[in-house]
Request: fold
Amino acid sequence: MRIERQALHRFICNLLETHDAGERQAAAVARHMVWCEMAGRGNFGIERLPILVKRIKAGVLAANADMAWERLEPSLARLDAGGGFGYDAAERAMSEAIAMAKAGGIGVVGVTNSNFFGAGAYYANQAAAAGMIGIAMSNSFPKVVAPDGLRPTLGTNPLAFGAPRQNGRHLLFDMATSALAGSTVREAIAKGTLLPEGLAIDSEGKSITDPAKVAEGALLPLGGAKGFGLALMVEVLAGLLTGAGVGEGVTSMYNDFSRSGDNGHFLMALDIGRWINREKFEQRLEMLATAILASGPGTRLPGEQRWDNYARAEREGIELDPTQWDAVVKLAQAAGIDLGC
Amino acid sequence: MRIERQALHRFICNLLETHDAGERQAAAVARHMVWCEMAGRGNFGIERLPILVKRIKAGVLAANADMAWERLEPSLARLDAGGGFGYDAAERAMSEAIAMAKAGGIGVVGVTNSNFFGAGAYYANQAAAAGMIGIAMSNSFPKVVAPDGLRPTLGTNPLAFGAPRQNGRHLLFDMATSALAGSTVREAIAKGTLLPEGLAIDSEGKSITDPAKVAEGALLPLGGAKGFGLALMVEVLAGLLTGAGVGEGVTSMYNDFSRSGDNGHFLMALDIGRWINREKFEQRLEMLATAILASGPGTRLPGEQRWDNYARAEREGIELDPTQWDAVVKLAQAAGIDLGC
Reply:
């Protein structure tokens, strides 16, 4: 199943607007999903539409949320996402962080009362495209144990980073701080594959490889104490500081329909030009990139695979997963929407 | 060998001042090393004195360096460390970041033209002790390969994070972005132990466990692409942005006596009170801490072990490694210094 980007964008907007999303909110979700599909990260693409619609219908995702800004300092602001789309809140937050960084060299926006924000790389790329260094973090519901822990206490708490490259294929780095991303577990369930040994445990601490059992168990942090420390850093910055839910205060988008996610996000932009001539920065980055690419057969830079996929999608259209596409087509038909593509 | 903290501080100051260090510079190194010894992190304590003295004598460590401030914005500054002690430069940089955060909610200082800065946790703790969230990063000489790489292109590039706790035992998290820290490799060499399988490779990419062979080989990044991405983030922020050496531009403190390290550091402080009532923040952190500590037998918070060691050293004096102490005593005797302890 191949689709042109504008057509996919319109389709997502139609579907969400039919389900009470505001025009701005729907367009933000569509931009995010189209970008992720183009970058070959289907886990953060249309696959999420059914659960979003389900949450809107359950009244736990405010598809037309009012969001409220609170100015803390010339370089700091908080955005109350009003229980709306994390995609919309985080995109607006990074835009504001970039604007503050243009004015004063640095900008930080904390988002509270939000929901799942998708792929952090999208927001890091916003900053990179504006000639800035970008950092994006989000907390999420407890799924990861501490070293020697049996019950999960922190989320997979992703951390993303971006920096501009001359050729527009910006450095983009996006990681779950757990040994496995939640989306990887769901992908394994969908495909019927097993997880590698030693990345997830059951409630007694025994290693499990059946992805369906992770819901009752937990994921291990990346590299033990290091990954857990990183997850805690994300929890402090994105959750504790912003006033969002923390630990059990954040709900699972797939398993808890009693209330909004209450996720928090942390978005930061740093203006490179304040520190060093932009061209010189990019030259230095290219020297480093050249050294990394020459350091062994098959070495790559973070982000390169996304940009290869992106360029292919620009040329050939977006290749969608047929199962995922079928699911959203059914959703559209149930809502009586003309697919328009 | 047990020593009282003030005595160790005076001894380090005497030794360094005899080797041309300024009073301020020597005291900064002493504070750092005494804190690390108390916290049970001997790898960043007096063990480094012989190499520091050797580098001063070789003329590649400016023990009495003039450092120059460059104000970039109300929240941003750069410190040119003048080829001096990284310990001194990073401590001053974090102090200034804290001062800027007091004034405007956030402060970032980039340090250029510096050297090895020891343990990032020390600087993160400065911020935590001031009621702030602190982040400290440094780049270092190439020792880590990219995934599928054969030649090292990035350093072990540490990343540290701190946040205040009510009980003064602040959250402190400090990690090398490589699978092993450089100091762990040197410790294994000193103790004659082998490295775990799969963390280091020779120049052909084969796994090695003999720590002495790492010098000719390389360390793997923590968890493959994730650790390498984190190392690159540190390199961009601490090296590229600040104007310091990058990649091969940074030298090994143990193996290259031709020039200064040219390390770069990145220090950031965020004032919690701008975002949320300080007491409420600490209550939220304690709730999370309680959940983590109750989540399994033996779970701990990042930093707790350091504070246990620190409290013991306060009660009983600092326990020094006898081999390391012998080495610095010889150094002092060679310089004709009264040990004073």
In short: The radius of gyration of chain A is 20 Å. Chain A touches chain B through 69 residues (CB under 8 Å). The CA atoms of residues 42 and 295 of chain A lie 30 Å apart.
